[in-house]
Amino acid sequence: MIDLDSVLHASVAQVWGRPAIYTPPSGAPVASCRAVLSEGDRDWRSGGSGVTTPARIAEVRVSEVPLMEIEGTLAIGADVFVIDKTSQPDADRLLWRLELK
Prior knowledge:
By secondary structure, this protein is mainly β. It has one domain: Thrombin, subunit H (Beta Barrel), CATH 2.40.10. The chain is built from one helix and six strands. The mean pLDDT is 83.
C-alpha cells in the first residue's frame, strides 16, 4: 500500500523546499535536508496572560533529519537560524516544525 502522506510531504519539500544544513548544538554530525519556510506566530505566555509575535517557521522531513535539537542551527542559503522550539505536529510524526530565531 502506498503511504500517501509520505509521498505528499516529499513532493511539497521538493517543490517549495530550499536546500539546508542542520547542525546540532554539539557541532556534529551535520545533515543535509530541504526546509520549507513560512511565517507563523510565536506564543509568549506567563501567568495567565500571553502575547503572540511573528515567528519564522521551518518544516523539515524526519526522514532527512531524525533528531532535531533546540539550540541547533539550520543554515539556508546565506542565513543561519538557531532552533528555538521543535515539534512534530502531524499524527504520523513525518515532519519537524521548527521555530527559528
